[in-house]
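Changelog note: in this version the structure field was regenerated for every chain. One regenerated record is shown below for reference.
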Amino acid sequence: MFAMKLHTREQAPKEGKAEEPKQPAEPFAPTQSDYLQFLVDSKEVYMALEDIVNGNDKLAPFRNSGLERTGALEHDINWMATEFGLERPQCGRAGTTYAEDLRQMIKSDDDIPAFVCHFYNFYFAHMAGGRMIGKQMSKLLLDGEDLEFYKWDENVNELKSRNKEAIENFASSWTREERDRCVNETPNTFKGGGSLNGYLFGGSPH
């Protein structure tokens, strides 16, 4: 499957062709403020993804996909700020930069394959490793509370399967050059997503 090539070898041992993201050298202990910043920056990126999909008719197959996260993130940001007496921060450099990169990405139809790579990797990473991160942060920082960010309105595996099929169908008419353009964008998706994860594992400036 084409979509599976956007995974790393660790994620998909047989089909994965994407470069593995670099791991931090030293352990990092995040605070509640770090986690709140991560949520705020994440919302900025998800908002950009949703705005682009809703504003481009060529991307209509990805509207109302069930993957959308901005509503859940807004709930969680407000809950954390209230529950732990934290001030809601402005979006940091990581979220602002990645969201702006996404918004500037699509200048013409030729740019759609690269965008689809970001769409796929950012959403699906959250549904895989992101859920494990959520469990870690819940135990470490939230007294075991589960955030709405990590909940969906349907079975996660069914949601993933349906959206993978949508991507496969969408890309079925692409030329080899367009498919390569999509796959070759994968390192940039790890760079963007990794900059946000830096709030939790070290590396991102506030």
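Spot check on this record: The longest helix spans residues 32-55. The chain has a mean pLDDT of 90.
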